[in-house]
Amino acid sequence: MRSFAVVAIGALILGCSTTSPAPSSSPQDASPGAAPEAGSPETDAGAQTDTGVEGDGGARPLEAYRVGALDDRATVSSPGVMLMGGGTDVDAAFAWMIGKSGGGDFLVVRASGTDAYNPYLYTQLGGARSAETVIVRDSADVDSPELLRKVDQAEALFFAGGDQSRYVALFEGTVFAQHVRALAARAPIGGTSAGLHVLGGRIFDARVGSVTSAEALTDPFDPKLTFRDGFLLPPTSSLADVVTDSHFYERDRMGRSVAFLARGYVSTGRSAKAVAVDETTAVLIEPSSSARVVGSGYAYFLRLGAAPVRCAAGEPLVAEGVDVLRIAGGSTDSFSFASFTGTGLSYTLGANAGALTSSRGRVY
Question: Which of 82, 92, 158, 167 could form a disulfide bond with 294, CB atoms 3.0-4.6 angstroms apart?
Fold first, then answer.
């Protein structure tokens, strides 16, 4: 039996203890800087816990918290992508990632919040060899040797919720992003809310702020509609040319996703695709490009195969023939990103005069 002890990774320890804050129903942040969710301390009798920061002496140390095994031992992992729509985390989605990790070391990266995912992953769900949360504050953290080593040694990586513009500012064009792409070739990568957005092949980066469906349909070139190419997954990813959206039904984002498609078509001159996910719901994508949906809501797969009738600055969007496929979480329906087709509820949408029309009478 392995002997366990509390170990300080660096010279500076913040609030060292053998417990980590336990998550309530969901350990993700509802918004950037949201207060940690309440919960009683929780630990596992067989867990080693690092609560503190580590560094190389001169530089400001990296804020990292780990529970479970402290050494590195590679497991046999397999790739996949998990897209979660925000809200309460989906146990089945994380269990899928842990399974694909081969029970290995699970790394969570976030730009705000707490280490609440650690006990959720390691103790509540179980099956991971360790769970570690790194909170990155600036570019020095992102490309620090410590973080790059953690990515290289991980068998699963998850980006928590927060603010995708912050993630883009921190991660784009970095050595860290290169290491994440290399990891994605052999291990599962996932994200929720903002973490979902930055896994798309085309990213709504929200660098000017979020945008509502009404704003996007009224003016598809609204200054808040800002995009950039994806950079965290390989160019061969199933999401290579797909824009993503989260909190979908709950925040009525169908209209803005249609505007995303129109802008994508205008930008590239070819078919534009999107995947949008409700809260408490996740899409699980296999290396074969096949996908299924878990959770209590729906995922929507949208495609605009023809140029919008009108997509111009300062004018309402006019578009026809937006194909939608809705798949319920937990159903036997499936989807193929290779053909961008699947089974589920199919219908079409149009946009005109700042509103959507639907072939089924309802937008969702």
Answer: 92
3-state secondary structure of 226: coil
* pLDDT tens sequence across 252-311: 999 999 999 999 999 999 999 999 999 999 999 999 999 999 999 999 999 999 999 999
Please report, for residues 147, 288, 300, the alpha-carbon distance to residue 342 in angstroms, rounded to integers and kept in the order given.
38, 14, 11
Q: How far apart are CA 257 and CA 237, in angstroms?
A: 21
In angstroms, rounded to a whole number, what is the distance separating the alpha carbons of residues 177 and 43? 32
CA-closest candidate to residue 360, choices 264, 220, 254, 274 = 254
Distance CA 97, CA 284 (A): 9
State both tokens at 358: 């639907």
The answer to whether the CB of 242 falls within 8 A of the CB of 208 is no
Which burial class, exposed, middle or buried, applies to 153 when counting CB atoms under 10 A from its CB (0-12, 13-18, 19+)?
Answer: middle
